[in-house]
Amino acid sequence: RKEVEQDPGPFNVPEGATVAFNCTYSNSASQSFFWYRQDCRKEPKLLMSVYSSGNEDGRFTAQLNRASQYISLLIRDSKLSDSATYLCVVNIDTGNQFYFGTGTSLTVIP
Amino acid sequence: DGGITQSPKYLFRKEGQNVTLSCEQNLNHDAMYWYRQDPGQGLRLIYYSQIVNDFQKGDIAEGYSVSREKKESFPLTVTSAQKNPTAFYLCASSIPGSGSYEQYFGPGTRLTVT
Predict the structure, then answer these.
(1) Interchain proximity B42–A95, CB inside 8 Å
(2) Rounded to the nearest 5 degrees, what angle is found at the Cα of A45, between the Cα atoms of A42 and A48?
(3) Number of helices and strands (H, E) in chain B?
(4) Does the distance separating the beta carbons of B33 and A98 come in below 8 Å?
(5) Any chain A CB within 8 A of the CB of B93?
(6) Cβ <8 Å between B102 and A92
(7) Stretch B87-102: mean pLDDT
(8) What pLDDT score was predicted for residue A83?
(9) What is residue A96's three-state secondary structure?
């Protein structure tokens, strides 16, 4: 079983739409959670960390559900520039290893 | 500016040759990582190092080797024993000991072996 699983998509949404991505993790000892954004042929860049209480950064909202072991990312009022692959990342502190989902592809259409 | 550099951006090699990918960081991070990414797949961990002169195998270490002689540098050698070396290689660093710190990535090296 994979440590982190994501729906690969692709998600094709019109500008202005709201889109949500989910990610599940298998290890209940997971400590820290992140969403990264990766543009085509580029390196991943941190979009936001995910905190237990949930957190928001502008149009982006991240939620963590420890009981069900899933993380979500909500993007409101989608922009063309949001088109990218979104990676769910989980850290299990032992050994300080990070586990990556395969990513969810988003295309925002004019 | 602090960051991670990888060189070269593109690398072409003939099958059977060893090749070394460079990774340098000036973020003063103790932990460094090497990942491989294939098209349509997630990042897979090759090796990681939490401190100078120490490193651990990741999920796909076979055919690769690393060294960590300096805090700033974590070069990766792709040996001829790696059966399918063509891929996008990403180096990352972070502050170890607490997973609440995110990883920072270099721009990557695209290796093509023919």
Answers:
(1) no
(2) 155
(3) 0, 11
(4) yes
(5) no
(6) no
(7) 81
(8) 98
(9) helix
Both tokens of residue A9?
Answer: 């998509």
A11: Cα within 13 Å, side-chain hemisphere:
26
Instruction: Express each pLDDT in B68-93 by its tens digit.
Output: 999 999 999 999 888 899 999 999 99
Interface contact flag, A103 B48, Cβ < 8 Å: no
Q: Distance between CA B41 and CA B39 in Å, rounded?
A: 5
Among chain B residues, CA nearest to A102: B42
A42 touches B: beta carbon within 8 Å: yes
* Blockwise average pLDDT, block size 10, chain A, 110 residues: 86 97 90 93 94 91 94 97 96 78 95
CA atoms B45, A2, A13, B102: torsion sign: negative
Q: Is A98 near chain B, with CB under 8 Å?
A: yes
Phi-psi bin for A109: left (phi > 0), alpha (psi -120 to 50), beta? beta
Interface A-B: count of C-beta contacts within 8 A: 58
